[in-house]
Amino acid sequence: MDNIGGGGVLRHSNSSRLSRMSFSGEDGRAAQARPAPGAGGDRPMVTFARRTHSGRYVSYSRDDLDSELANSELAGGGGGFSPDREEFLSYHVHIPVTPDNQPMDPAISARVEEQYVSNSLFTGGFNSVTRAHLMDKVIDSEASHPQMAGSKGSSCAVNGCDGKVMSDERGQDILPCECDFKICAECFGDAVKNAGALCPGCKEPYKATEMEDLVGGGADGGARPTLSLPPPPGGAPASRMERRLSIVRSQKAMTRSQTGDWDHNRWLFETKGTYGYGNAIWPKENDADNGNGGSGGGLGGTDGQPAEFTSKPWRPLTRKLKIPAGILSPYRLLVLIRLAVLGLFLTWRIKHKNEDAMWLWGMSVVCELWFGFSWILDQLPKLCPVNRATDLAVLKDKFETPTPSNPNGRSDLPGLDIYVSTADPEKEPPLTTANTILSILAADYPVEKLSCYVSDDGGALLTFEAMAEAASFANMWVPFCRKHGIEPRNPESYFSLKRDPYKNKVRSDFVKDRRRIKREYDEFKVRINGLPDSIRRRSDAYHAREEIKAMKRQREAALDDAVETVKIAKATWMADGTHWPGTWIQPSAEHTRGDHAGIIQVMLKPPSDDPLYGGDGEEGRPLDFTDIDIRLPMLVYVSREKRPGYDHNKKAGAMNALVRSSAVMSNGPFILNLDCDHYVYNSQAFREGMCFMMDRGGDRIAYVQFPQRFEGIDPSDRYANHNTVFFDVNMRALDGLMGPVYVGTGCLFRRVALYGFDPPRSTEHGGCCSCCFPKKRKIKSTVSSGTSEETRALRMADFDDEEMNMSTFPKRFGNSNFLINSIPIAEFQGRPLADHPGVKNGRPPGALTVPRDLLDASTVAEAISVISCWYEDKTEWGQRVGWIYGSVTEDVVTGYRMHNRGWKSVYCVTKRDAFRGTAPINLTDRLHQVLRWATGSVEIFFSRNNALLASRRMKCLQRIAYLNVGIYPFTSIFLIVYCFLPALSLFSGQFIVKELDVTFLTYLLVITLTLCMLAVLEIKWSGINLEEWWRNEQFWLIGGTSAHLAAVLQGLLKVIAGIEISFTLTSKSGADDENDEYADLYIVKWTSLMIPPIVIMMVNLIAIAVGFSRTIYSEIPQWSKLLGGVFFSFWVLAHLYPFAKGLMGRRGRTPTIVFVWSGLLAITISLLWVAINPPSQNSQIGGSFQFP
Fold first, then answer.
1. What's the DSSP call for residue 451?
2. Whole-angstrom Cα distance, residue 494 to residue 32?
3. Among 208, 211, 396, 1000, who pairs with 108 as Cys (CB 3.0-4.6 Å)?
């Protein structure tokens, strides 16, 4: 790798001989010549790069050059050349075919290059060279799986060659000659082309000279036929992107008219269809014997029956399960009743003033008006809850069963890219992240369609090596899960199950396999937990060696002169003895958390297209995996580039970097993002989510949100960590509108929805009745017949009246042609099957059974480019493309933008939890988590993402739900005032009403009863229990009086003073006390957020004591006012009970003297109040009293 002309150039070493050469130009520009994949040694495609005035390097493809030259020629009036054009005209590249530069068999070169890519660590970024560092080893232990980076292989036996021997998909050596002479792919190609196809070992001619014959030949027959697309017109070999686009262009959806609707007459004319079963349908005489066994052509089916009667009926993938009317109707009626009573009560409160305490009455009325408004915002979106169910059997029948369009039964499911984000290995333990990765790799989804990307935003070598160890352990864990149907497929959770692990296991070797895997996992945990010390010792050893070498060189140069102590930066070293390009343990220049190069390492290369079955006792797999597919999904480690002076936008920026890099490398049309502590609990969760995306109307669904379920929560759920009211009540209710909000993890996205495109069909809603009477949006222009298939469904709001012009995409998505060209492919592959007339914008069956392309170095180099820190400059990433920037709750804003463009979302509640994660059970951590959520809501309210500014494509009730998301933190202001009102009432001897009459008590009773009845009905249709509902009510007051108030203050500071908000990463680490699973629950960590609730508790307790003392010793005791104040004070204290319990720490550790002194203090304060304001002489109960 050399820096040629100051530009960023990727160059292969001579050993790979992939006909890739680099040329330098003038003025710091560089050009890169590379042939199209599969084109052999034909004329290469040239990519140019030039340096801008700001010092950034911009790459140009041939298409960009042609368009830029044309623009410059037009600007110059057609005469002469502009300076910009002269800048590019100095390049003219020819690579003649010479004896040393012979074209290689495309099949061999593609496989060799993919092996090279999977064993290389790619780095690069701003103003630096993109380098591919060949890794001899990734971890200290040996890699045994053939897909894993750094896997061992035999060396070539040809003298002077240090290449690796060709290997098959199992990692076994390919020996083309019967003498078993070991030879690499390059030497084999030279022997075939230049040495008369003679073996260098035995000098006998090779019997097979093609790569397919070597890999697929054998006793079982010839090579596997590859599924390839027809070559493009003109006979020229197709490039990678042309072959991808040919999938889109060659496949046509079902016949449609010019308006885009189903054209039944045209279908009848061009096919052998009929109008329906009501007509007389008779098979032709020879239909049953047409050479296809009676099951093909014409109308005839099996046994001479019409195909309409013998074909399977169309079945949907999902069903909407409505809430029973016996529950939903009373629920809606109670909402109306409570709304009416609330209105009458507030009217009565306004009219009946308390003349004796106007200040108390005024504050209470204002608070009650806000509470009523807040309740309406929260309750209205709950009027239409729904449940949904999926049918996995139908999914398998449609996408993985042999059909005429898919005779081999290959999976026709779309590709799925899974993102796992982590930032700090100290707060997010690598063992937790590794378990999440293992659960993803073992998921029940087609292996060749699954790709996992790990985003390490801290650039830590600890995370890198932990992921490599996870990939190595997956070699045994994943086949073990497939063999025995293990659930869950997170090894830590599986081996911690309390139930019988041998239940329902039918294989006789399960006990033996489980014991062996348990031993392997224990060793795996030891290696993971020992990585920090191992990396530190290794780095110290290499650093000492470097210091000794430096001192030796200095002494040799200085001779007899005095030698000063040599000081060199203490680097962090990788297992192969080279510097880690990311963050060092002891930070140094260009090796800190905010300043390091971009890194991509393919930990597990893409698997083969056909199943790869294991055997009995293979090397690296001591278990018997006969007839078990041992392939692993692709696993990629990604650490985006970070440089000082750039706003990296925290988690949202990391997710957008993954979107771009995955689009270049795998381009799955669907994306699932998970936090590092959320693992796959249900191995079929991906399939359940895909049922919604692939069903009729699924092309309008932007994302499928799964509920968040948590482990490690204390049995009483003291701080409402399960949050079941939100996930099982509010989210189910939103599913009946436009869909649930996006909550940050466990969400399956449609890639083109993240790209900012509009749905294929959108509906505009106007007025309050829009949810019941939607108005179809009218588009002035129709799709022309000349519109290409791949861009027909790509539309943005800016292009309502004209066709989408892909020439504007660089301004939105950046200057990566790989990324831009992948957009229409992802859109097409994400369409549902066009297997029913009602399926609009579908794709034909069998379109996704074509094997995906092999990885090459140019693809990974492009992925390095798109994760560079400068790539998003002057683009719409973070503005309307990808995850949206500008808020600490980027998840809610991103989901809101999709709903605002007309997309829908779906809530997928599976019978077995889809994902499970961890939540902070410590009071301080929980308050900080709620603070971050509430702060994001305040930011949303003061931004253009406020639901009041939503478009007409969003339903009225959905808009109210998003409005409540931005408003709910402001309730804390009124809530704190209302919590002090009982104490003020007891101190002053007044109450919020003049007297406790029957009207006030009746209103209060009806409002309370309707609230309880609504809670019971919500429990009925949501499935939660009463204790969970009560815990949610308690923490609503705890969070409202602490974190929500702080969030409002922080939000106002940011809006008014421009002070940025920083949040602390939620710790996923366990407690230090290994003997107590809930040790974190009892740890008291002081935070200023605790001050308001503590003050509220103390003031109310003192007020109760003062109120009792005053009433007992008063001349005319006013028990009604005392009871009113005490009742509301107890209401406040009952809600704050979990908070008080958290302050006391572990049960039994609070000394008894604390409670004694608390009681004495309360009595003393009450007596002091009576002494300060003594009652007059009276003959009532208690008589007169004087303080001594």
1. E
2. 50
3. 211
Q: How many CB atoms lie within 10 A of CB 1087?
A: 16
413-503+514-554+568-614+623-762+810-844+853-919 CATH = 3.90.550.10
Please give the C-alpha separations between residue 1016 and each of 327, 448, 591, 732, in angstroms, as whole numbers. 10, 47, 57, 16
652 near 890, Cβ under 8 Å? yes
d(CA 759, CA 898): 9
d(CA 432, CA 442): 16
Domain ranges of the chain: 154-207, 413-503+514-554+568-614+623-762+810-844+853-919
For residue 679, the cross-strand partners are 916
Q: What are the C-alpha distances in Å from 1166 to residues 592, 844, 1153? A: 59, 81, 20
Higher pLDDT, residue 115 or 442: 442
Residues 6 or more apart whose CB falls under 8 angstroms from that of 41 comprise 19, 35, 95, 97, 101, 102, 103, 104
Which long-range contacts (C-beta less than 8 Å, at least 24 apart) are formed by 816-820? 816/59, 816/660, 816/664, 816/862, 816/865, 816/866, 816/871, 817/61, 817/63, 817/64, 817/241, 818/241, 818/663, 818/664, 818/859, 818/862, 818/866, 819/660, 819/663, 819/664, 819/862, 819/866
Model confidence band, residue 151 (pLDDT cutoffs 50, 70, 90) = low
Cross-strand partners of 907:
705
Phi, psi of 680, rounded to the nearest 5 degrees:
-80, 110
- Distance from CA of residue 332 to its chain's centroid? 36
Binding-site entries for Mn(2+)? 651, 675
SS3 at position 175: coil
Query: Tokens representing 159?
Result: 């003298």
Q: Which residues are catalytic?
A: 457, 891
Q: Is 1139 helix (H, G, I), strand (E, B) or coil?
A: helix
Would you place residue 702 in the very low, low, confident or very high pLDDT band (cuts 50, 70, 90)? Answer: very high
Among candidate residues 655, 651, 682, 705, the one with its CA nearest the CA of residue 916: 682
CA 291 → CA 186, 295, 300, 302, 748, distances in Å?
48, 9, 12, 12, 45
Q: What is the pLDDT of residues 63-87, one digit of tens each?
A: 444 444 444 444 444 444 344 433 4
Whole-number pLDDT of residue 444: 95
Kindly report the backbone phi and psi dihedral angles of residue 193, in degrees, each rounded to the nearest multiple of 5, phi listed first: -85, -35
Residue in the structure block whose two tokens are 């107890």: 1130
Better-scored residue on pLDDT, 38 or 804: 804
Residue 885 CB contacts under 8 Å (≥ 6 apart), including other chains: 649, 652, 653, 878, 879
Give the residue ranges of the annotated binding site for UDP-alpha-D-glucose: 421, 427-428, 457, 650
Instruction: Write out the DSSP string of 675-722.
Output: ETT-EESSTTHHHHHHHHHHSTTGGGEEEEEPPPEEES--TT-TT-TT
Backbone angles phi, psi at 601, to 5 degrees: -130, 120
Helix (H) / strand (E) element for 829: namely helix 817-829
Instruction: Give the whole-angstrom CA distance, residue 458 versus residue 456.
Output: 5
Query: Residue 916: helix, strand or coil by DSSP?
Result: strand
The conformation of residue 918, written as its DSSP 8-state character, comes to E
CB 637 within 8 A of CB 456: yes
SS (H, E, C) 607-651: CCCCCCEECEEECCEEEECECCECCCCEEEEEECCECCCCCCCHH
**Amino acid letter, 489:** R
pLDDT tens digits along 482-526:
999 999 999 999 999 888 777 777 788 898 999 999 999 999 999
SS3 181: coil
pLDDT of residue 432: 94
Residue among 695, 705, 702 at smallest CA distance from 399: 695
Q: How far is Cα 295 from Cα 306, in angstroms, rounded to an integer?
A: 10
Q: Which residues are within 8 A (CB) of 169 and not within 5 positions of it... i.e. 6 or more apart?
A: 146, 215, 607, 608, 612, 631
Task: Say if residues 852 and 446 touch (Cβ distance below 8 Å).
Answer: no
